[in-house]
Amino acid sequence: MATTGDETTYITGSFGGRADFGPFVLDSTATAQPTLFVAKLGATTALATGTAAPVSSPQLRVYPNPTAGAGVDIALTAAPVEAYELRVLNALGQLVFRQASAAGTTQWQLPTTSFSPGLYQVQVLGASSRWAQLLLVR
Questions:
Q1: Which of 4, 37, 48, 65 is the most exposed place for a label (fewest CB within 10 A)?
Q2: pLDDT the model gives residue 136
Q3: Sequential DSSP letters for 52-81
């Protein structure tokens, strides 16, 4: 989740199954792959909340966030020692950056100068672990 100064909130994630939101449908029942989604909520958009534990990634840090600079730093804490792949997906779920790293690597610098302004999902994927965090590029 990321927020902007104009009271806009962006939420992204993955969903398995089917859910209907008025005219919008999330449906991944036909494939084994989850559906990626991005939701934009404005000041007048109703936001439903619940008591379930929030989906967060306390072990993955992406900073500064939001960014308007040349790049961001990415760090994993308390992560298993294994090889990781750093991936960045745009709001449409398209892969815009990918970098493999050796076992034990837990810090990266992500250049963002070629990224268009928008919301991105930063993913760090390992053989037994995976993390995701939103990044807002201004």
A1: 48
A2: 94
A3: SPP---TTEEEESSSB-SSEEEEEESS--S
What pLDDT sits at residue 42? 67
- Segment 68-101, tens digit of pLDDT: 988 999 998 877 888 999 999 999 999 999 999 9
Between 18 and 127, name the one with better pLDDT.
127
**What stretch of H or E contains 48?**
none
136 forms bridges with which residues in the sheet?
119
pLDDT of residue 113: 92
CATH classification for the domain delimited by 60-137, as one of 3.20.20.70, 3.40.50.970, 3.40.47.10, 2.60.40.3080? 2.60.40.3080
DSSP E strands, the chain: 2-3, 9-15, 18-21, 24-27, 35-41, 60-63, 71-76, 84-89, 95-101, 107-111, 118-126, 130-137
Q: What is the spatial distance between Cα 85 and Cα 63, in angstroms, rounded to a whole number?
A: 18
